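Our preliminary data section would be incomplete without showing what the modeling component actually yields. Below, a chain of 323 amino acids is followed by its predicted structure, encoded as tokens that our downstream tools consume directly.
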Amino acid sequence: MDAEDGVSLLLPRLEYNGVILAHCNLCLPGLALLLPPVTLAALVDSWLREDCPGLNYAALVSGAGPSQAALWAKSPGVLAGQPFFDAIFTQLNCQVSWFLPEGSKLVPVARVAEVRGPAHCLLLGERVALNTLARCSGIASAAAAAVEAARGAGWTGHVAGTRKTTPGFRLVEKYGLLVGGAASHRYDLGGLVMVKDNHVVAAGGVEKQAVRAARQAADFTLKVEVECSSLQEAVQAAEAGADLVLLDNFKPEELHPTATVLKAQFPSVAVEASGGITLDNLPQFCGPHIDVISMGMLTQAAPALDFSLKLFAKEVAPVPKIH
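Predicted structure:
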């Protein structure tokens, strides 16, 4: 499967104030280039409008004087989402200075960045920026843990996300997967022709109807993947011309023998495993005939990291407490 290769875990060491905080990937800054500026600006605009669609009464309290705030990481994990954080405050005429690069391994309590700008603008963007950074970093952290578990099992295939993303927040979540080192899988319905179980039922079968229609729609520009629930279906899909076969909800003891037989007959067909895979049982699904392991939990169940943005008037920002 020619999904994104993700990000290598063999990274140079990063130190901050004498403490090893991260393994910094030199390629991570380039990931921001994947984010279309117009799309990014539109997302930020929608987020800010959602949080403050009318009068901002709190602005009368804070005023418009110049202010500064420190961004603190209060839980461990992988830092991800800097382009979104930057875009939010740029739109509000504030400037962000980062002390740690994207992809850093956070060791709390860590001072991550500083934001400067008019007080009312800084506070207007505070919650939106923190929510975005916390969610993106949480997904990157889960993705990094999954990749580490897979590599620890000696498996070199693709750990991937899925299309199980939050409506309106997919760009952030897919980006977080990449920062964490996982593949994002297809971004939307147009990225890959995936024939799932309901498509097969609607088409009347795998071999003749479903895959044939998918191949015709895909032409030469897209690959075709077929979700299968048995070895028989997998063989039918491969015979009909599927590029990838998704073995969905197979137990490990069923998955590996099925993949072995399928690969013996169709060595060029890629095999993806999915369904019920967690960080705890991931190594059980790793095997020599599995090319991709996709995990919906990376976007659906990843806990958000804890960040706080604290205004300060003195030269040294006070360190927040962890509850």
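The radius of gyration is 23 Å. The chain has eleven helices and 14 strands. Preliminary results of this kind motivate Aim 1 of the renewal.
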